[in-house]
Amino acid sequence: MILLLMAAAAFGIVKLRNLFAVVMLSGIFSLLAASLYVHLTAVDVAFTEASVGAGISTLLLLATIAITGEYEKKNTTSNFIPLLIVVITGVALIYGTLDMPLYGAADAPANVHLIPRFIEQSGTEIGIPNIVTSVLASYRSYDTLGETVVIFTAAIGVLVLLGRGRNRWRPGIAKDATTKNGENEI
Amino acid sequence: MNNHSILRVVSKFMIPFILLFALYVQFHGDFGPGGGFQAGVIFAAAFILYGLIYGVEKARKVLPATATRILLALGVLLYAGTGLFGIFMGGNFLDFNVLAATTVGGQHLGILLVEFGVGVTVAATMVTIFFVFAGQDF
Description:
The complex is a heterodimer of chains A (186) and B (138). Chain A is mainly α. Chain A folds into two domains: 1-73, Four Helix Bundle (Hemerythrin (Met), subunit A) (Up-down Bundle), CATH 1.20.120; 120-186, no CATH class. Chain A contains nine helices and no strands. In chain A, helix 2 runs antiparallel to helix 3 and helix 7 (131-139) packs across helix 8 (141-162). Chain A is globular and about 60 Å long. With 138 residues, chain B is an all-alpha fold. Chain B is 76% helix and 0% strand. Chain B has five helices and no strands. In chain B, helix 2 packs across helix 3 and helix 2 packs parallel to helix 5. At the A-B interface, helix 3, helix 7 and helix 8 of A face helix 2, helix 4 and helix 5 of B.
């Protein structure tokens, strides 16, 4: 049921030209994904998906369409070849899932390698009830450091592209810049 | 949005609770779902709500651009600094066992600091991105 609703939302996102509706649908898509993760008992991931996917990124996209305008341009070029590529990739991915172990299978590699060790040892090694946190912050600390740097880089990128530098002249803000001695950063 | 008195009053009531919930998610991440990333996003959401209702100018008075930029770097530095401190204490980079007298205590301290670093950077990033986008006047 959740998957059907997700498919419907995705189809709407592809078809609609009104970007406001598209942003709302992508928020709904994220919320549905979050409930799917809860169903798979991955509450940490669901929490992240709900707060980031459905919350912040919807807001940021809304802020973006406030700048760019609400309607998408009509696509005039033929979209047969892109469709073909997407269909071939999709079929290949579905073919790939046929080899995967069943969800929750006891002998699946995900359940045999490392995970039992984390479940058995993290209580004595880390001493924190939430194993997800101890894996994220301690066992996989390098990965999380990398993620934090990625977030940091994203902010730097936005600042470089859109931020108003201290001494940079821009036609739209020239008036403010002179009144406040060029220090009107946002 | 100066005329929406219901929005203004309700958001004023809600913002302290959003901030409190963010801190709960931040420091309760050891025991339940949550952690630095989610907490940072929720913390930023409170400031973004304030910015939406009262305008970016006023929100920037609460949280100036310089402050978010410093916090942005501070989070990453706190994370990497915790890792480097592990080296000074005689362990490997990001080895939390050596941070305190016992290994479990060290792990607790390390995870707390690291998650806090993640939270600070994420919150500052989200606030920065939103205010930069919303502050465009063209």
